[in-house]
Amino acid sequence: MMLVPPTLPTAPLPRELILVIDNSGSMSGASMEQAIEAADRALARLQPGDRFNVVRFDDSYDVLFTTPVPAEPGNVARARAYVRSLRAEGGTEMLPALRAAFEGQAPAGFLRQVVLATDAAVGNEDELLQLIESQRGEARLFPVGIGSAPNGHFLRKAAEAGRGTQTLIRDVNEVTERMDALLAKLDKPAMRDVQLDWPGVAEMYPARVPDLYAGEAVQVIARLEKLEDAVTVRGLRPQPLGAARVADRPCRHAFARHRPALGPRAHRFARGRTAPWR
Q1: Got the DSSP string for the chain?
Q2: Tens digit of pLDDT per residue, the chain (278 long)?
Q3: Which CATH architecture has domain 15-187?
Q4: pTM for the full model?
Q5: Which residue ranges make up each domain of the chain?
């Protein structure tokens, strides 16, 4: 099943952006340069009304501001200077930094978006994924893989657990294009907290559907004996452009595709395309 975002314009989402930057020894050289450029690009794109913070880690971690702060010029300038001062050294202890990034909750009307810039040279993947599952709250995690050979397996799993997507940057010349694409997408969420109600028992991949963003479809594959009734898609949509922002609006859409059953022992993969969203 292909989930296609609605095309109606919506107001940009006030973001609470938490940048988590890996400055461990494995990031030395070109990887650290790419991470700094990626973080600087994200800071430069912050808009009035946004909130943000910066966390850096090696075998220790530091949080720039005690709590996320408004994206005022002075705060942004301080953060950009801080990021430019980072050097790659020490071991890699990602867990405390992620825990700090997920701590607390964003104010009402904001969605916390955690952007993690790392080569993911870690040995405790299961522990990190468990932390993301259990402590991210309403935050979304967007891993940015840095360097020529980042740990793609962990980055993909972390994005799935964090209800986000991964981005790979293998060359410093790609930073502007890749980060602009990621941050432009994060400006325009089309539906969050997506849930699919299948008719009967279904095995689905991905097991947790990521949020939908403008211009980016999401494919879901399910295995079930037969698809003879409607599949309902539920989620929350932002307010239309120009509307007073109170809360995201519930939305549901159903579609059905009928095929002959293959028998009691047969399995099938169900795919379909949604009609336009209402």
Answers
A1: -EE----S-BPPPPEEEEEEEE-SGGGTTHHHHHHHHHHHHHHHT--TT-EEEEEEESSSEEESSSS-EE--HHHHHHHHHHHHT----S---HHHHHHHHHSS-PPTT-EEEEEEEE----S-HHHHHHHHHHH-TT-EEEEEEESSS--HHHHHHHHHHTTS--EEE-SGGGHHHHHHHHHHHHH-EEEEEEEEE-SS--EEESSSPPPEETTB-EE-EEEES---SPEEEEEEEPPBTTS--SSPEEEEEEE--------TT--EEE--BPPPP-
A2: 777 766 666 666 678 999 999 999 999 999 999 999 999 999 999 988 899 999 999 999 999 999 999 999 999 999 999 999 999 999 999 999 999 999 999 998 788 999 999 999 999 999 999 999 999 998 999 999 998 889 999 999 999 999 888 999 988 888 888 888 888 888 776 676 677 787 777 787 777 777 777 666 777 888 877 767 777 877 766 544 444 343 444 555 544 443 333 333 333 333 444 433 44
A3: 3-Layer(aba) Sandwich (3.40)
A4: 0.75
A5: 2-9+190-270, 15-187
